[in-house]
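Quick one before lunch.
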Amino acid sequence: MKCPICKTDLVITGSERLETICEHVSDPNGSVHKKDVFQCPNNNCKANEYGAVWEESGEFFTYNMSWDRDKELEKCFIGENNGPFGTISRRLNVEIYKCGLKNKVYYSPILTFWLLKPYKEYWYKANKDGEILKSGWKIKFLKKGHGNKGYYIGWISGIHMFKYVLREYKRKKESFKKAESEFLSKSIVKIVEKAKKDDRWWYKWFYYHLLIFENNTINQAKKINHEKNS
Ligand SMILES: [Zn+2]
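Model of the zinc ion complex:
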């Protein structure tokens, strides 16, 4: 692994009880194991001067460092990423923490007539050197919480829900086509009945879709269901 400031190979300078995020999450009160401490050997590097420390997976520790020095060091890291080159930490700093990268852009709720707050969320795939291999974005929405105090609840669009119920229906239909059992015919009939009663617009769409394109399957299911029950 290489220093995220000067790219010199880091060297082991001792061992310390450093608690990694992974350890803290899996066992917050557990004992912290001793780990090899990696430091930058380059005398002209700020990481060396301030005694910056990393552990094996590249997690950065600021023990023994003043707040001022910590802040100053932050500005020196290449790509605002404190993970050494060639470590999983450098990759996660890009993919999860989106260090030095665009993360979310919020838009005005006017665009949705104040119903929802739209935002664009960026995603990245990176390698252990923090280089971006793939990236993209998705539009997501927040809806208002109780009492109209701002937008904070994640909202799934009706289109997504429509696609979801349709996918679930198609899965059931596949199994029904393979084995025309009473149980499967019943579940198809149930889906149709639920779609007929539900008032949400995407359920209405789904119901019309069933009427137009799935008539044969539904009639078949109803027939089997009726035969078994009569
Ligand atoms: Zn260095």
